[in-house]
Amino acid sequence: MLHIFKEGKKGGPVFVLLHGTGGTEHDLIPLAEMLNSDYSILSIRGNVQEGGMNRYFKRHGEGQYDMEDLEFRGKELLNFIKESADKYDFNTEDAIPVGFSNGSNIAINIMLREESDIKKALLFAPLYPVDLSGNNKDLSGAEVFLSLGKGDPIVPEDESEKVVEIFKERGADVRHTWVNGHSLPQEVAMEARDWLNK
């Protein structure tokens, strides 16, 4: 997968940056550097094209996921993170997904996989309208920062609440905050930084 790797402090955490629809691997690097400049960065471009825009998985429409493709792409992305850990010499349990919108959604998918050992994530504007009745992933010990939108034109508030519950029901320690719309304002980035470095 197309990506950028920037090495930080050896043996430290690694941000896995996952852009929103239409983004690139460059979009979230300034955010990562602001969150903690000592951490390494693995920023990955989505492999799927939708009307010329990069995404991490296919969909049939807004909030209507192609479940088969989501399953395939989630596995592909997690495998790529594992391969990158070998290549760049870091531990997968030190990987911290930082996602916006579509990037947050694929991050949720990989965290819910039994073979994933990711324990921390910062997810902005997520949406995960997926039937998880068969998923019993234990996320106790995981810490998740969620930024959710009031009046978000893409994500209804009850769907935002559902994302909080996905993590809480599986035992994760969840901090969530609300912003206006489908956005990542400076003040929530600062709040995420304080949470991360507490």
TrEMBL record:
Any Pfam family the entry gives: Abhydrolase_2
InterPro entries (UniProt xref): AB_hydrolase_fold, PLipase/COase/thioEstase
Transmembrane segments: none
Lineage: Bacteria, Bacillati, Bacillota, Bacilli, Bacillales
Positions of the Phospholipase/carboxylesterase/thioesterase domain: 5-197
Organism in which the protein naturally occurs: Lacicoccus qingdaonensis
Coiled coil: none
Protein name per Swiss-Prot or TrEMBL: Phospholipase/carboxylesterase
Single GO MF descriptor: hydrolase activity
